[in-house]
Every structure is written in C-alpha cells, then in structure tokens.
C-alpha cells in the first residue's frame, strides 16, 4: 500500500516503473490513466519521465494536474458519470430519485463524488463505507458535512460519532440503489442471497461476480455494468488526450456537458439492447460493444 511509503519512495518506484514500460506506450498507442492508489501527482511523474526520454509529451498520460495539461472535470468524472447513470436507471425502472435511498460501498474518489452528485439530485444517501468500516443512517447522512470531514481526516471513521458497522453488513441493508465503488467481487455467492436493493450500480471494476449476477437476474435485481457506469473517468481521459493533441483547453462546463451527452447516449444504447433482446444490462453492454467492433471490422475488410 502507498501509505507505507514516503512521497520520495513512491516517486522513485513510480519513475522506475514508467521507464520500464516506455517501449510499449505512446501518444497513439497506449495512454495510461490514474486508478486505485494513484493520483495526479503520480501522473505528473509519469509525464515527466516519459518526456525526459522522448521530449515533452503531455498526451502520454491523463489525469494530470491542470498546470501540466490536465483536463477540467477529470477528478470528478467517474463519480459524476456514476451519478448520471444512476439517474438514467431511475428513469428506466420508474424510481423517484428524490424519494430514493442509496448505499455506496467505498468512499474514495469515485464513491465520494458519486455521493456528492446524487445528493445534489435529491437522493438520500443512507450508508457509506471506507477501509475502516461503514456508517449507516436510514434517515440519511449529511453528505456535505461528511465530505468536509473526510477531506480533513482522510476517513469517515468518527464522523458525527456514528458507530461503525462492517462493509459486509452495509451491503445487506435495504435500499433502492446499491453502489459498490470499492474493489472487485464485493458481491459474490457468499453474500448475494442477502442483497436487499432494487438496482445495483457497478461503480467499481467487477464488483459483482458472474455467479452472483445470475442469481440477481433470477431475482429481477438489475445490474448496471461497470463498463457503462464507471466510463466517465476514461471518457474525460479521452477528452484530456484530445485537448493535449489540439493544444487547446475546454472549460469545465464544456467538459461536463460533453460527458453528460456521452453517458446518456451510452446508457440509451445499452438499455435499448437490453429491452430488444430481453437480456441483462451486462450482456447488453457486451452486445453493443461487439456489434460496434464487428461493424468497424466489416467496413475495413469488406
């Protein structure tokens, strides 16, 4: 875990890694972006190390600080996209957002921003968790205060003297939207029978195992898949790359407007496929993606 190392040690480890992968990346080949336990500072070292070898190349990595060619809106993009997808799912399944209850497992970058935007949509956030445990309040948690507390303390532990419960217990609480936004396989055959929500929104990568997904489909609990839900981050990473290539910056409102358009359009494509084929949203997402690749291939080879 990065917390075990000093900033100097993390920088040396990062730069060594970046030099090692230099031969296999490039502005038109493979462009890395931040994920778990990395941040804009690490991306800065990445760009600097690559540029030291190949010349100044801001487009080699995304998620950079604004001062080094980063994009407005990138930090919040994955959480914003998650909130947008949750809103669209609420429309499809006829759930009133202003009367809905949401539980978010994981309160890092994605979970905290998702909570912020869903709170602004009028949702009641009744449970959140981090590595230290979870807090739950069926009457709703004061998200603005929690975000301020977390920014100062780096944890949700101790907020408003809530008694911590386990992450496992939080997953079984009754809610409208359950948003696993931590690590993979959080919902599995060991706990899927105790899941008590109307819709699962996969903000993490692979938080619902395949066998658990089959169980949930039988119980008519939809899963909005990760490749759709958390696409906001990689979408704005693409926007950042485009801005770097053009050497022209967009405003935050422009970025957010473009992100909104992309996420809504993507959701509609997947949901329409789900309805047309009477298949789970996860399978529908794969079908849409494979169709696009297949059509592009046919156009190229005839």
Average pLDDT metric? 96
Beta-strand share of residues: 5-15%
Name the helicity range. 40-55%
The count of strands amounts to: 6
Number of helices: 11
Which CATH C-level class of the largest domain is it? Answer: Alpha Beta
CATH superfamily of the largest domain: NAD(P)-binding Rossmann-like Domain
Give a short account of the largest sheet: 6 strands, mixed
The coarse silhouette is: globular
Give an account of the 3D structure.
The protein has two domains: 1-70, Leucine Dehydrogenase, chain A, domain 1 (Rossmann fold); 72-302, NAD(P)-binding Rossmann-like Domain (Rossmann fold). Helix content is 50%, strand content 8%. It has helices at residues 7-21, 40-54, 77-92, 109-121, 143-153, 167-171, 210-218, 226-229, 231-246, 252-277, 281-301, and strands at residues 101-105, 124-130, 133-136, 177-180, 199-201, 223-224. The protein has a six-stranded mixed sheet with strand order 3-2-1-4-5-6. The termini are far apart. The mean pLDDT is 96.
């Amino acid at each position: 875990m990065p917390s075990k190392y000093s900033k100097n040690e993390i920088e040396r480890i990062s730069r060594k890694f970046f030099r090692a992968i230099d031969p296999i990346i490039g502005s038109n080949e493979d462009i890395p972006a931040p994920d778990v336990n990395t941040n804009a500072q690490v991306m800065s070292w990445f760009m600097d190390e690559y540029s030291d070898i190949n010349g100044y190349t801001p487009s080699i990595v995304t998620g950079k600080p604004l001062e080094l060619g980063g994009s407005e809106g990138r930090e919040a993009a994955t959480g914003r996209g998650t909130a947008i997808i949750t809103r669209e799912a609420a429309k499809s399944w006829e759930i009133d957002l202003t009367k809905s209850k949401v539980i978010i497992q994981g309160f890092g970058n994605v979970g905290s921003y998702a909570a912020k935007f869903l709170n602004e949509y009028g949702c009641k956030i009744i449970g959140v968790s981090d590595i230290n445990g979870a807090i739950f309040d069926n009457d709703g948690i004061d998200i603005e205060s929690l975000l301020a507390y977390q920014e100062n303390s780096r944890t949700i532990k101790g907020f408003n003297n809530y008694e911590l419960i386990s992450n496992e217990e939080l997953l079984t609480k009754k809610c409208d939207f359950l948003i696993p936004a931590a690590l993979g396989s959080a919902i599995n055959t060991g706990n899927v029978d105790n899941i008590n929500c109307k819709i699962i929104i996969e903000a993490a990568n692979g938080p619902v195992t395949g066998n658990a997904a089959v169980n949930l489909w039988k119980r008519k609990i939809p899963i909005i898949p990760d490749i759709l839900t958390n696409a906001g981050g990689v979408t704005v990473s693409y926007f950042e790359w485009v801005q770097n290539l053009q050497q022209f910056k967009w405003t935050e409102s422009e970025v957010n407007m473009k992100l909104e358009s992309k996420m809504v359009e993507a959701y509609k494509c997947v949901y329409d496929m789900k309805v047309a084929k009477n298949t789970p949203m996860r399978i529908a997402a794969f079908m849409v993606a494979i169709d696009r690749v297949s059509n592009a291939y046919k156009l190229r080879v005839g």
